[in-house]
Amino acid sequence: MADEPLVLGIETSCDETGVGIVRGTTLLADAVASSVNDHARFGGVVPEIASRAHLEAMVPTIQRALDTAGVKASDLDGIAVTAGPGLAGALLVGVSAAKAYAWALDKPLYGVNHLASHICVDQLEHGRLPEPTMALLVSGGHSSLLLSGDITSDVRPLGATIDDAAGEAFDKVARVLGLGFPGGPVVDRMAREGDGKAIAFPRGLNNAGDPAYDFSFSGLKTAVARWVEAKRRAGEPVPVADVAASFQEAVTDVLTRKAVRACKDNDVDHLMIGGGVAANSRLREMAQQRCDKAGIVLRVPRPGLCTDNGAMVAALGAEMVWRDRTPSSFDLSADSSLPVTETHVPHTDFHAHAHEALK
Ligand code: KG4
Ligand code: ZN
Fold it and tell me: Signal peptide location in the record (predicted)?
């Protein structure tokens, strides 16, 4: 529909330079340049390398997105950008680029929350999100259960990891098994050859009295490392596929159990799963089984939209325009620890605040 907002979104919170263009809930372009290979030899994302890669990739990626969408920059109704949370230097590159384009093109600027964007992206695939929707966000940087109403203004945290993120646990276990970085996709692949019941790895925060919606993956990671170490010390071969499958089973069991419980406790009948770990095949399978059993509708975007990308930022930006939300001001800054409840960073009347403060 031509009257739906045409929005370009920029994502640079970690190692993906993402530029997406959407019209309302329709995806027109999703250009991503990743620096993941530059980080592989360090076993994790190096912030300085990520920032420099964003800087180099920014203009060509924006151009690629415009070409793919077949739209002119002057036709855009707004420019959205991830204002946080994420790596400070990496975020700054995206925020500066968004400001420059918005200023030069005289378009409204929307600084938006990375986590709300991970939820909103599902609209590009499955249509408007019901209100409320429960969201399980699982990636290298976050593992949270969020209850979302109006996605532009109402995201409430129910629980989060108290130590490692789920994706971080996949990355660390992959390192212990010598499978490389990032660990998620390769553990997922190896696990298909193994038996998820072979080794009984611990499920974190799963006892009566434990916080119902919080997660903990650090104990599981240590248990896997100890188990593998014991095998090696005994001079026995490590059954890599069984370890991968059993570890993956422990993570997905806890994630899906808690997500379904959160839906039931809060009377929510739609669950969406987003973030890089949502690409995991066993997580998708187990979530589907448990949701079917509980009468919950499961929505999981395709893997390319689950990992960090610009389309998710554009999707939330379009929603901001659609719902007439106040744009951000040009003094918008990146906030590496932007709270999840701040779905966007609206215009703040700096002078009014300063005036109040001086009274
Ligand atoms: O959302 P994302 O691209 O970036 C962050 O915001 O962190 O997520 C990346 C994380 C990495 O930890 C990666 O190992 C994990 O998502 N991941 C997976 C799979 N694909 C990516 N974890 C499990 N199974 C997968 N298939
Ligand atoms: Zn992310």
Answer: none
Confidence of residue 182 (pLDDT cuts 50, 70, 90): confident
114 carries a ligand binding annotation: yes
Evaluate if residue 39 carries a pLDDT over 80: no
Going by alpha carbons, the residue nearest to atom 18 of ligand 1 is: 184
Mutate to test the pocket of ligand 1, among 91, 142, 170 (most ligand atoms within 8 A of CB): 170
**Would you put residue 87 in left (φ > 0), alpha (ψ -120 to 50) or beta?**
beta
How many C-beta neighbours within 10 Å does residue 72 have? 10
CA atoms within a 13 Å half-sphere pointing along the CA-CB vector of 87: 23
Residue 142 binned pLDDT confidence (cut-offs 50, 70, 90): confident
Structural domains of the chain ordered from first start: 6-125+306-323 (3.30.420.40), 133-300 (3.30.420.40)
| Average pLDDT value for the chain | 93
